Amino acid sequence: MVGSRTVEFRKPVLKGECKVLGDKSISHRAIMLGSIAKGRTEVTGFLSGEDCLRTIEIFKQLGVYIKREGEHVWIDSPGMKNWTAPADTLYAGNSGTTARLMLGILASSNVKSVLTGDASLSKRPMKRVTGPLQKMGALIHGDDFLPLTITGSKLTAIDYELPVASAQVKSAILFAGLNAEGMTTVKEIDVTRDHTERMLAQFGANVLRSDKTVSIEGGQTLQGSKVVVPGDISSAAFFMVAAAMLEGSSVDFINVGLNPTRTGIIDVLKAMGAKVVVTDRNGDDGEPFGNVNVTADSLRGIEIGGELIPKLIDEIPIIALLSTQAKGKTVIKDAAELRVKETDRITAVTEELKKMGADIEATEDGMIIHGPTVLKGASLSSYGDHRIGMMAAIAAYVADGPVHIEDPDCIAISYPNFFEHLYQLSAVEE
Ligand code: S3P
Questions:
Q1: Burial class of residue 238 in the structure, from the number of CB atoms within 10 Å of its CB (0-12 exposed, 13-18 middle, 19+ buried)
Q2: Distances in whole angstroms, Cα of residue 122 to Cα of each of 130, 234, 358
Q3: Residue 341 annotated in ligand binding
Q4: Catalytic amino acids?
Q5: Residue 179: strand, helix, or coil
Q6: Sequential pLDDT tens for the chain (430 residues)
Q7: Where are the alpha helices (DSSP H) in 50-154?
Q8: What's the 402 CA to ligand 1 centre distance in angstroms?
Q9: What atom of ligand 1 comes closest to residue 168's alpha carbon?
Q10: CA-CA distance, 74 to 65, in Å (whole number)?
């Protein structure tokens, strides 16, 4: 049963603090590396969103002991060489990160498994991962899509040039390389999020990095570690944009991840004219984090493309909304990857914002938006995609009437307390 929700505001002034939940990408990797490693791993700040819970369930099926109390997770693993074969299929739900990274891990494990996903994930391309893994000798059966059967086997290292800028593909190959014979090297076309590389090092692996190249020697054994997950900048981005768009607003985001491969949203907010100040920066030896203040100011259109795209790929739906409130033309290009996300985000964003009266046009690899436009209330679909659902809800802040969102429950995939924050921030009086 798919629900709906109506959200209405009268252009509130947003003030106060916002502490978003833990980073999704880092939470997945903490569970994965804690399960690959032998011994105890402790994770704090874990994101209990649906995607990351899928990753936990999968490792439990492989015989890893995992206990979770809210944002705190304890993992006791026998190490990946001692996993037990799962009795049932492994279900990745809606989570592309779970599916793609697990393919790399399972291919070099000692178990045979079948990996499945929901309707959306079963339509997303897996060949980009299974292709290079098969070159390493992986035994993966199925088409380019889930479900896939993976028989863990001995792999051989490869040198691989990524045809797309994808941290999921890079990470899958690095995980497979960790257990392969020889030195695996991955070369990127554009730098993508590097959480896997940083965390591998934290668990004791020797990872060699230079510019756009990462290498890992096979046969390294990892030891359990402690992981502190910072707030997810991709979740904070929704309220950062809201603060930037609503005159008189100023919001402090506490303990947000500031890994430079993820901070494209800050660059864009600044370039469009919002005031952004970063303070208390910390954690530069692992995952950098800090506090970010965003204050509204007059906004102007800009061009977004090239190497910046992987640093804000998940933020493009909310940047499109921001652009409708900026003066002039915004061009988003080089972002064709959006077409193979949880939904085709170029089509979804364009269609939904058009319903609100936005001047927006889809291109093959992005969008062109002219602003500013006074958006009107409308009935919008989330397409079952958490980031489209959140964009629709934030659009209600600047709309002239109520926004009705079909299937808003998918937001729990990455931001279970999103609506709580939406109302909390807008309830603060000037
Ligand atoms: C992710 C990588 C990105 C991103 C996704 C999370 C990750 O996907 O869109 O939300 O955790 O590695 P791609 O690797 O497909 O670009």
A1: buried
A2: 14, 24, 32
A3: yes
A4: 314
A5: coil
A6: 578 999 998 889 999 999 999 999 999 999 999 999 999 999 999 999 999 999 999 999 999 999 999 999 999 999 999 999 999 999 999 999 999 999 999 999 999 999 999 999 999 999 999 999 999 999 999 979 999 999 999 999 999 999 999 999 999 999 999 999 999 999 999 999 999 999 999 999 999 999 899 999 999 999 999 999 999 999 999 999 999 999 999 999 999 999 999 999 999 999 999 999 999 999 988 999 999 999 999 999 999 999 999 999 999 999 999 999 999 999 999 999 999 999 999 999 999 999 999 999 999 999 999 999 999 999 999 999 999 999 999 999 999 999 999 999 999 999 999 999 999 998 755 4
A7: 50-61, 96-107, 127-135
A8: 32
A9: 14
A10: 8
Domains along the chain with CATH numbers: 4-22+230-426 (3.65.10.10), 24-228 (3.65.10.10)
b/e map 291-301, b = 16+ CB within 10 Å? bbbbebeebbb
39 is in an annotated binding site: no
Tell me the CA–centroid distance for residue 25 and ligand 1, in Å.
8
Instruction: List, in sequence order, every residue forming a beta bridge with 151; answer none if it has no partner.
Output: 112, 139
Label residues 105-131 b or e (16+ Cβ within 10 Å = b).
bbbbbebebbbbbbebbeebebebbbb
Q: Which residues contact 27 (CB under 8 A, 6 or more apart)?
A: 43, 45, 46, 47, 49, 52, 55, 229
**Per this entry, what is the length of the chain?**
430
11 is in an annotated binding site: no
Q: Are 341 and 385 in contact (CB under 8 A)?
A: yes
Ligand 1 neighbourhood includes 193 CB (under 6 angstroms): yes
Nearest CA to ligand 1 atom 13: 166
Q: How far, in Å, from the CA of 40 to the mean position of ligand 1?
A: 27
Of the candidates 232, 312, 229, 310, the residue with the CA atom closest to the CA atom of residue 270 = 312
**Beta strands at 207-210 and 213-217: parallel, antiparallel or unpaired:** antiparallel
Task: State if pTM tops 0.70.
Answer: yes
Q: E strands within 193-270?
A: 207-210, 213-217, 226-228, 250-257
Q: Three-state DSSP class for 150?
A: strand
